Amino acid sequence: MNLLSHAFLDGNGIPYTKLTFPSETEKGAANVADALGCAPTQMVKTLIFETRGGEHVLVMLSANQNAISGHLKKAIGSRDIKLADPDTVKQVTGYEIGSIPPFHWQPHGFRAFVDAALTHEKVLGVGAGVWGQEIMLSPQNLVEASAATVVNLTERDQPV
Among candidates 157, 152, 137, which has minimal Cα distance to 8? Predict the structure, then answer.
């Protein structure tokens, strides 16, 4: 199955591996990690946040992490942010929550952030756009493909 996410990576010469997991796997990056035999720290949650000003941003965290609110607000540059609702996520990305690829759908200038903790892994898993399909790639290739800024969103005692 060649998906838009695969075509994007192929077209940009970014190496990756395709993996599959049972489509009956319960939603969530941690469940995907279990299904693939990977650590939760390797599976990437792709979250869409929106600011009061109407900007949408992509935030990538490992399956077992949540962003520290203050760090996230500082990285985005807005004190008034919220997680986008499912309808907004579908409208912005073209995908249902659960297998949003972190690349190929963003218009020019769309901001994306990768938690610095993800860069310590050898390989990361991201949604391919279809539940049951996963893309495995290096942290460096994820940052390149998503045009993301690496920021600290999860280490409380470290600067953003």
Answer: 137
Please state the rounded mean pLDDT for residues 4-19: 97
Q: How far apart are CA 20 and CA 42, in angstroms?
A: 15
Is residue 155 within 8 A of residue 116, CB to CB? The reply is yes
**Summary mean pLDDT of the chain:** 96
Whether the per-residue pLDDT at 2 is higher than 80: the answer is no
What are the helix (H) ranges across the chain? Answer: 4-11, 29-36, 69-76, 86-93, 139-146
| Residue 59 and residue 67 in contact, taking contact as beta carbons nearer than 8 Å | yes
What domains appear along the chain, each with residue ranges and CATH number?
4-151 (3.90.960.10)
Q: Which stretch of DSSP H or E encloses residue 48? A: strand 44-51
Task: Give dist(CA 20, CA 12) in Å, integer.
Answer: 22
Evaluate whether 125 touches 43 at the Cβ level (below 8 Å): yes
Q: In the predicted model, is pLDDT for residue 1 greater than 70?
A: no
CA dist 16 to 5, 52, 61, 84, 138, Å?
11, 36, 19, 28, 8
